[in-house]
Design the sequence.
């Protein structure tokens, strides 16, 4: 295969379209969350992931699992956790069964902010998808996203 191979060109075009869709959606949601709640997309995602933890077995995530869930490096996730902890939205504590482990919980203030921000996030996502659906290059990807049924 060469760099001008039609299959590679089509693959690159598909990747470009997917990247453009992601960028549009993320930028639209970012503006809405920043304006309405002083939250970034990453901060919202972190609060959302951590709010789904539970007290049952395997219910609390280790930092690597959190980093994977919010698609950040562990060091970037730690910095993000620190920023939200400084704002009183998260709290860290030692794992009761393994003193080397540190867990993170969403505070009541964080849960309240997340609850208020969730409709903004969902509305901004819907708006961004509707706008992207008008672009013939992105419309098939929007339909694919809308057809996904991913378990919670």
Sequence:
């Amino acid at each position: 295969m060469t760099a001008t191979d039609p299959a590679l060109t089509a693959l690159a075009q598909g990747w470009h379209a997917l990247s453009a869709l992601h960028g549009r959606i993320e930028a639209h949601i970012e503006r809405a969350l920043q304006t309405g709640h002083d939250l970034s997309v990453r901060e919202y995602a972190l609060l959302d992931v951590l709010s789904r933890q539970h007290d049952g077995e395997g219910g609390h995530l280790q930092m690597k699992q959190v980093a994977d869930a919010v698609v950040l490096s562990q060091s970037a996730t730690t910095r993000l956790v620190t920023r939200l902890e400084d704002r009183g939205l998260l709290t860290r504590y030692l794992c009761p069964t393994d003193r080397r482990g540190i867990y993170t919980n969403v505070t009541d203030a964080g849960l309240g902010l997340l609850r208020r921000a969730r409709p903004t996030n969902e509305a901004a996502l819907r708006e961004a998808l509707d706008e992207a659906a008008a672009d013939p290059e992105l419309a098939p990807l929007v339909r694919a996203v809308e057809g996904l049924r991913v378990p919670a």
